[in-house]
Design a protein that fits this description.
Blueprint (H helix, E strand, L loop, with lengths): L1 E8 L2 E7 L2 E10 L3 H28 L4 H16 L3 H14 L16 E3 L4 E4 L4 E4 L6 E6 L2 H7 L2 E10 L2 E11 L8 E7 L3 E5 L4 E3 L1 H20 L2 H10 L2 H23 L2 E6 L4 H4 L7 H6 L2 H15 L3 E4 L24 E3 L6 E3 H15 L12
Parallel strand pairs: 10-13, 13-14
Antiparallel strand pairs: 1-2, 3-7, 3-9, 4-8, 5-6, 6-7, 8-9, 10-11, 11-12, 15-16
Helix pairs in contact: 1-2, 1-3, 2-3, 5-6, 5-7, 7-10
Length: 383
């Protein structure tokens, strides 16, 4: 909750607050039997056929706004595809949203692409862990599987849920709105340096090593290369089956690291300082053997996980300019490429100060964040 305005009318004082909410997504798996699976398959296929039909008309008539499309196709879609009133509305919205980016290319939709449900055609029963969902074969009550964290998120489910068909299974991605606590005042700043060899390093000197993740990447890369060389149908089938494992492992590691960082900052009443990493892949030059690590590492994912966990915990996040954070001596302030002779070593050519390079970078990030102007009531600084 944020104080946004204060008004006085004679002896009456009016204080206005703005409640801030964060949108998170809860992913649950639908435990379908053959009947419900066939019904969902038919529903998702029919909805996307309708979306392609609507897109054809939108393109030929050059009509892309949702309200105009609704007047143009609503009754035809209901009659031709047998969709319910609300599902028709959602499919029209899907097409209109697809043309919001630009209107220079005709949009087409995959046969089993995701479709959106709202509260009129999908409802949750969290006690029994079932959903009541509209299908082309009538309403169905389908059980779902979810972990403790997902069930907690679903308590605040708001808005749409996306039905996704992936690897022969159905999932629901539900939008949940979580009220953010007021960010606490902080006494100090915890600097965080993100890297390739060491995923994260903080200004206290703690290193979150990336050995396990880098080893997993190397193994997956070698395995993919082997399967590509074999080139048989079975090898291609295995490659498809194995795809996504590295990404899931990386996200799991990022979750664990971001949780530790936020817990440390919260427990010591500190803000978190991060570098602005936008465009880092085009900005950073690395050796040939490090290029794969640079382009496969989930920079943005770890940063986003740190930020949203920090916001839920009431911890401030500050972004700084990353220039020279790894080349500046924290003792004398001398800046030089020569201060960092290799990836892990920092040694100032002026004063002789030496330490682990990533720890020095984290300390410099903290120092910049401490000295730069900071306005507590400006949430845009966290964006």
């Amino acid at each position: 909750m944020r104080l946004t305005s204060f008004h006085r009318f004679g002896n009456i004082e009016l204080i206005c607050y703005n409640f801030l909410y964060m949108k998170l997504v809860a992913k649950v798996k639908l435990n379908t039997n053959q009947k419900s699976k066939n019904a969902l398959l038919d529903t998702i296929r029919t909805a996307n056929q309708a979306a392609n039909y609507i897109s054809d008309i939108a393109w030929s008539e050059q009509t892309f706004k949702k309200y105009d499309l609704h007047k143009l196709v609503y009754y035809d879609v209901r009659e031709q595809f047998g969709l319910s009133a609300q599902m028709t509305v959602r499919v029209i919205a899907k097409v209109a949203d697809a043309y919001k980016l630009d209107k220079e290319t005709k949009r087409t939709f995959r046969e089993y692409g995701a479709i959106a449900y709202d509260s009129r055609i999908l409802s949750w029963n969290l006690d029994n862990q079932t959903v009541s969902i509209w299908t082309t074969q009538g309403r169905m009550h389908i059980p779902f599987s979810a972990g403790k964290h997902q069930l907690e998120l679903l308590q605040s489910q708001q808005g749409e849920s996306d039905l996704v068909f992936f690897r022969d299974e159905f999932y629901l991605f539900a939008t949940c709105e979580i009220e953010e606590p007021d960010p606490a005042d902080f006494e100090d700043v915890l600097g965080i340096d993100l890297g390739i060899v060491n995923i994260a390093t903080n200004s206290d000197g703690n290193i979150y090593a990336g050995d396990a993740l880098n080893q997993k990447r190397a193994e997956r890369k070698a395995f993919r290369k082997h399967l590509q060389k074999v080139g048989t149908r079975q090898a291609k089938r295995l490659a498809k089956k194995q795809s996504g494992r590295e990404s899931r492992f990386s996200k799991h590691v990022n979750h664990e690291i971001s949780k530790q960082i936020v817990n440390l900052a919260q427990g010591t009443n500190r803000a978190i300082a991060l570098e602005k990493l936008s465009g880092i892949r085009g900005r950073v030059t690395v050796r040939r053997n490090q290029r794969y690590g640079l382009h496969s590492w989930t920079f943005y994912d770890l940063q986003q996980k740190i930020e949203y966990k920090a916001r839920l915990a009431g911890v401030r996040v500050i972004y700084i300019d990353p220039r020279n954070t790894s080349r500046t001596c924290p003792c004398c302030g001398h800046v030089s490429k020569s201060n960092r002779p290799n990836q892990s070593t920092f040694k100032c050519v002026r004063c002789g100060f030496a330490d682990h390079a990533d720890i020095v970078a984290a300390k410099n990030i903290r120092q910049v964040a401490v000295t730069q102007p900071y306005i507590p009531d400006m949430p845009d600084q966290m964006a």
